[in-house]
Amino acid sequence: MTAVWDEARTDETEPDILCRDLVRIFVTEGVEVQALQGLTLRVERGEVVALVGASGSGKSTLLSILSGLDRPTGGAARVAGQDLVAMTRAERVDFQRHRVGFVWQQTARNLLPYLTATQNVVVPMALAGTPRRTAARAARAAELLALLGVTHVADRLPAHMSGGEQQRVAIAVALANDPRVLLADEPTGELDEATSAEVLEAFRTANAELGTTVLVVTHDPAVADHVSRTVRIRDGRTSLEVLRRREVGADGVARDLVEEFAVLDPVGRMQLPPEFVTQLGLRDRVRLDLEPDHVSVWPGTGPSSAAPPTAAPPTTTSPPTSGGSRPAGRHAATEEQS
Ligand SMILES: Nc1ncnc2c1ncn2[C@@H]1O[C@H](COP(=O)(O)OP(=O)(O)OP(=O)(O)O)[C@@H](O)[C@H]1O
C-alpha cells in the first residue's frame, strides 16, 4: 500500500481524483519522452477544476490515464474509488461505463451521427443494461437533455444541431450512467466565445444538480473564469494553482478574490515560475533561507560561497495574504498559454 491510499481514507471522504508521483514515459524509435514527470493532483468530490498548460505539457496524457484509456509508467492514480494502476480488464469496463464520463473536443467524436440526441443518450444505458426498461431509459434521456437545455434537439441527428448543442448533448451522453466524475478534453476548442460559455454553464449545471466532479482540460483562458480552481501543468507536473472565490466584505459588497499558489508536492518539491527564474538569472542551484514565517530563495553564487547574501531578498515565498492578494513576491500570472 502506498501513501496515496492512506490519503484516500474512507469511501465517504475519498477525493474523486488522486494522483501521486505519476510518470508516463513514451518510447518511439528509441527516443524516450517523459510526458508526465512525477505529477501530483488531488480533486475533491464535487469540485469543478480546470487543468491548463502549454501545448506538450502533458494534459492529454494525464486525461488518457484518468479515463482508463492508458496506464502510467509509474506512480499511483485513483479515480472515483478505482485504482487505475492495478485495474483488471473487467474493472476497466465497469469503470468506463459507470464511474467516469468523457467529453472530447471533436464534437463528431462524442456522438453517433446516425442516431438522434435521445438515442445517443440511451446508448450507454443500453450497453450497461440499466435501467432495465426501455421507457425508463427514454425518460432518463429526456431528463438529462432538459437539464442541459437541449430538449429542442431531442429528435435531431447531430448534423442538424449547432456545435454548442452537440457538446451539451455529449455531456448528457457522458452523464447517462450517473458517473461520479466527468472528464473533458478541450470541450470548447471548436466553439466561439458565446457558445463556449453555454457549454461551460452546462458543466456547472451537471455539477450543481447532480454533484458530479468535473475536470476540464483546456487551452481556453475563459474556462478558468468559470471554475473555482485552476491547476497549471508544466513539463509534466502540476506547477501552479489559482483559486477563485466570492467574499462579501464588511461594506456588504461582494468581491471576486483570486489567489495564486505554487504547488508543493508531498516531498516538498515545487517549480519556480519561469519569469522568476529568468528575471533573477537563477541557474543550477539556489540558496534557501528559512525565516520564521517564510522561505527566501537566493541566486546561488557558486560552490565556494559560504556567506549569506546581503542584498535585499529578491524572491520570497510566504503564506498567502488574506483579502485575495497574491502571495508576497508573486506578481500577476502572465505565463503563456498556447
Ligand atoms: N503516444 C505518444 N508517443 C510518443 N510521445 C507522446 C505520445 N503522446 C504524447 N507524447 C508526448 O508527450 C508530451 C505530452 O503530450 P500531451 O499530448 O500530453 O500534451 P498536451 O499538454 O495535451 O498538448 P496539447 O495541448 O498540444 O494537446 C509531448 O512531448 C508529446 O509529444
From TrEMBL:
Low complexity bias: start-end ranges: 299-327
InterPro entries recorded: AAA+_ATPase, ABC_transporter-like_ATP-bd, ABC_transporter-like_CS, ABC_transpr_LolD-like, MacB-like_ATP-bd, P-loop_NTPase
PANTHER family, alphabetized: ABC TRANSPORTER RELATED, IMPORT ATP-BINDING PROTEIN
Database matches in PROSITE patterns: ABC_TRANSPORTER_1, ABC_TRANSPORTER_2
This protein's UniProt keywords: ATP-binding, Nucleotide-binding, Transport
The organism's place on the tree of life at top rank: Bacteria
Keyword 4Fe-4S found: no
GO molecular function, one term: ATP binding
One of the Pfam families matching this protein, by short name: ABC_tran
Domain ABC transporter: 17-260
Protein name in the entry: ABC transporter ATP-binding protein
Positions of region (Disordered): 294-338
